[in-house]
Amino acid sequence: MATLSSHPDPAWRGRVTATVVCLLILWPALVITEFKPWILFDWQSISATGRFLADFLVPAHSSEFLAMLLEQTWLTVAIATSGLALALLGAIPATLIVNEQLSISRLGTGRMRPLAMLVRQSVRWTLVLLRSVPELVWALLFVRIIGLGPTAGVLAIALTYCGMLGKVYAEILESSDSHASDTLLVNGSGRLAALMYGALPEAASELMSYTFYRWECAVRGSVVMGFVGAGGLGQRMDESMKMLAGAQVSSMLLVFVLLVALADQFSKVLRRRLG
User: Directed axis angle between helix 200-225 and helix 233-242, to 10°?
Assistant: First the structure.
């Protein structure tokens, strides 16, 4: 008869081993990054932070500031929307190319032709390149090329999100039921018609949900890119933080939270109607 372990937890050895391994990995990482949380408790840091955060209790609300805030908020939304629209112009054709379910040669021979495979792989690697570079890096590059302003943010979002949307759109379509699109292709339909009337009805809800999620991410990204001079709410927030104007930063953060919450609610309503 097997004897029971005296320890109340039979898996304690594995848990202890996993904890030790995690600590051995985490400790060198903390040393390399010079992680020093005790700096936060320095008296000068605490006093400066306290004065800055005290202003948050009364957000800035002058008519002149609110007018500027409304204008910059609208500019931030415009940057995100324009960048996503440009990204869609590249992502949709790329989805048609990299999506193997919409390949006519695959249906006829069971495998794709070498030229089609070469084109597909080239586009796929282009999408990998575009989404591998963060939009903040693209924004820094375009600020150096074309100068400060929202154009840099629009182009940065367009390039990065083109790679993201093209990849995820293709994966969503490939994971959906391909019977309708295959039937259209076999009967002589073009790739675009097979996409519009075969694949899209099956995956419309998921595609739309992901698109609005990316738009929400683009709004957040446009704020971050404003800190490097790409315009919008982030650039104004950067200026206010440099002046330690906590009241202005508080108002901007409240507007930003409200903006993201409205985008999330709109996405939920749209998903519910499509579902």
Answer: 30
- Cβ contact 147:173 at 8 Å: no
pLDDT digits (tens, 9 = 90+) for 126-156: 999 998 988 889 999 999 898 888 899 999 9
Provide the token pair at 246: 């906590």
The interaxial angle of helices 63-98 and 246-274, nearest 10 deg, is 40
Spell out a b/e string for 251-273, using b for 16 or more CB atoms within 10 Å of the CB, else e. bbeebbeebeeebeeebeeeeee
Cβ(115)–Cβ(141) below 8 Å: no
Q: Which helix (H) or strand (E) holds 250?
A: helix 246-274
Q: Report whether 169 contacts 260 (CB < 8 A).
A: no
- Going along the chain from its start, the domains and CATH numbers come out as 62-274 (1.10.3720.10)
CA-based nearest residue to 164, from 132, 192, 202, 198: 132
Instruction: State residue 162's pLDDT score.
Output: 94
Query: Which helix (H) or strand (E) segment is 214 a member of?
Result: helix 200-225
Grouped pLDDT means (10 residues each) for the chain, 275 residues: 55 78 82 76 74 76 88 90 93 83 54 71 89 90 88 92 91 73 65 67 79 87 86 84 82 86 77 67
Are residues 266 and 183 in contact, defined by beta-carbon separation less than 8 angstroms?
Answer: no
